[in-house]
Amino acid sequence: MDIFSMRNGMTLQAFVFCLGLYVSNHPGKADETAPSSFQDWFDGEAVSAAVEKVQPATVVVQQKGRDGDVRGKASGFVIDAEMALVATNFHVIGEGRPVEVVFQSGERLEVSEIYASSPNSDLAILKLDTPKALASSLTLRPEIAKQGEMVLGFGNPQGLQFSVVPGLVSAVRELDAAVREDNDELPDFELLQLAMPIEQGNSGGPVVDRNGQVVGVVTLRHRVTTNLGFAVPSRELQRLLEEPNRVSMERWQVLGQIDRRIWEPVMGSDWGQKNGAVTVSDPGDGFGGRSLCLYHEIPSQDACEATVEVRLGSESGAAGLVLASDGGDRHIGVYPSNGRIRVTVFGGADVYSWNILDQIETPSYKPESWNRLRTRLESGLLTVWVNGDQIFQQQLSPSQLFGGRVGLCKFRNTAAEFRYFEIGESLEDDVLDEADSEKLDRALTLLLRDGDVGIAMKQLAQSPKDSRTVIAQRRREMRAQIAQLDELERELHTQQVSRELVMALDKPEAEIDLFEVALQIAALDNDELHLQHYRDSFERLVHEADLFLKSQGDSSVAEAETLRAFLFEECGYHGSRSEYYNPANSHINRVLDDREGLPITLSLLFVEMARRLSITPVYGVPLPGQFMVGFASMDEESRKPAKRYLNVFDNAEVLNRAEASQVIARLTGQVPQREDFQRADAHSIARRMLQNLIVIQVEQERTPVEALPYLDALLAIAPDSGSDRFQRALILFEKKAYQRSLSDLDWLLHQRPPGIDYEKLSQFREMIADQVTTKAAE
């Protein structure tokens, strides 16, 4: 069901015709609670009358940005023409921004005040700045809409202004308590569940009955899918209208905004204040989305400390403290980014003038939580603490100290919150007396060991603040231990699976079970994979194929093509088009579940089925860019067996060598060589599958550390692969697993496989060894 837009005096015939199509395609008896039958409701004249009545009272609600540009568009409608009141959603108008309303005639009116608003019901009533009455308004229906009632929705979906769409009220219900627990802003009253297309821009639009009376207000916020959403019943809007909480636009525009008497935003972004915290969202105007919010008070030039607690909306973001700022784009930044604390000197507007002093990975930092940053700058000596632990100290040169202002910073598309910002000469964390700390720690140990809340609480409650400090420290220590245990468990799992993979391949080639090989590779990513379930599932698939082959009665030469028909036509296995780089396409269990995969996993499935069914010759063909299956087929002209190639990824097409070469040439730009058509053994297939997974993590996901299990498994089955060992050494270095990286580098220097610059490799090894020595000294 499409959205039918009626703009600029467009006639209603097409709309009514489409309504008729909807009825004819959805036959059935109308719900007994509906006001009339579908046929009556869809009477062309009735629909036309409803649209003509409602449309002039619908409006576009536009929220303006700080520079007067339009930040967002949604919908609304007039509910009182004399008072010039317009209803819309609360989330449409936001906080602290000017709002204007655009009518179908093109007339624009500013909003003079927020007449009433309720975040909980997501409703707002706007009073327009006009001395005259508006042309028309809509009536709110006091009775709630009934399940099965046909309705019309009006709005501006995806910017298509003044559109209308039919639908029905599929239910009247409260949201589940579990859903509301996840978001305390969701309403606890009944909503209208709508079966109609709801798009961005529909928010705030009226939902009306056949008489043009408003039964609800669309709220995009509760949208579940494109054709399923919710509307706030009109009775909630009536309650708001009867009990206004008026706020002038002058005052509204400072709600939630940063207090510019205290702070000075620099380089844009959306800085605000809410619940005692400073908030920021949207990229800044500086390079890399940089934006600052500088504190007006300038601290002492001799010694200055600054502290703030910061929480990132996502660990991929970056936000923190600013020091030594000149009020522009030169300053020092101390901020978490990707789980590390970064200390950077920003010498100008672009990245070429930036200098990262250090990126510190510390267990003191708590991801997805509040973290206290503290800095001290005295005579050029910069010291940084995170949650009370010192992590950085360095003497800066005079050229790196640009000014004396401090404040907050953010980068990229980061959303962040800041609280408890403070500057002063000394902001040292309160330090517990050693004896008191030990006493509280013993009480906490007693609680954790014996679960005796009563005795422990008596001691801990004597000094709640200090007790919370001890608990927070213990929690950090336990998190660090848990992280170490998780890492150890992952490494042991990888070793176990790698041994199983080696055992699966340590057989004569004709006896190697390729499905088992692929299943062990899939197990690298899933320590809970039910291996036997998938072994049994594959065996059943092979049995079904056997029955299919026998039912066809083909000759042995045609069996491979019959197996092709079974797997790709009867069972529907196919190449993955939309999510080619999803790791699931390399996991044979997911290929069985979803019936889609990469060329190599689909080929492996086919080859192993053929082996178990004694169909020969069938083998993997390791063509560059796209794996295929080789088999024998009867040539139609000579009536003799001929080599053919099954392009399992592209509709399982049967190709001769020339056609297969054309496919590869189109993909890679190179014509495959004779050796590319040779049979792939099981070891090479396993290596190619693991290398595919490595490429996904390193090149597609940009998370090279996640490729380590695949490299470990690959080197378990191919220990002499110098290129793979070198890649693992680099990733281990990036992970700061220096000893393991050194072990791989020493192997390379001793075995000296070709293709490596060993002079540079030796220098790289010495650099890592120095870091290990420095770390040990610390």
As laid out across the biggest beta sheet, the strand order is 15-18-27-20-21-22-23
Structural class estimated from helices and strands: alpha+beta
Radius of gyration: 34 Å
Task: Provide the β-strand percentage band.
Answer: 25-35%
The biggest beta sheet is recorded as:
7 strands, antiparallel
Distance between the termini: 68 Å
Number-wise, the strands total: 34
Shape: globular
**Helix fraction bin:** 25-40%
Low-confidence stretches: 1-38, 178-185
Number of helices: 21
Nearest-integer average pLDDT: 84
Name the descriptors.
single chain, 778 residues, alpha+beta, seven-stranded antiparallel beta sheet, 21 helices, 34 strands, 26% strand, disordered N terminus
What's the gist of this structure?
The chain is α+β, with helices and mostly antiparallel strands.
Topology:
Layout: E1 4-5, H1 13-25, H2 38-41, H3 44-54, E2 58-64, E3 70-80, E4 85-88, H4 90-93, E5 99-103, E6 108-118, E7 123-128, E8 150-155, E9 163-173, H5 177-182, E10 191-195, E11 206-208, E12 214-219, E13 229-233, H6 234-242, E14 247-248, H7 249-252, E15 263-266, E16 270-274, E17 277-281, E18 291-295, E19 303-312, E20 318-325, E21 331-337, E22 340-346, E23 354-360, E24 371-378, E25 381-386, E26 389-395, E27 405-411, E28 416-424, H8 434-450, H9 453-460, H10 464-505, H11 514-523, H12 531-552, H13 559-570, E29 574-575, H14 588-594, E30 596-597, H15 599-612, E31 618-621, E32 628-634, E33 641-647, E34 653-655, H16 657-668, H17 682-700, H18 708-717, H19 722-734, H20 738-751, H21 758-777
Parallel strand pairs: 29-30
Antiparallel strand pairs: 1-9, 2-3, 2-5, 3-4, 4-7, 5-6, 6-7, 6-14, 8-9, 8-11, 9-10, 10-13, 11-12, 12-13, 15-18, 16-17, 17-28, 18-27, 19-24, 19-28, 20-21, 20-27, 21-22, 22-23, 24-25, 25-26, 31-32, 32-33, 33-34
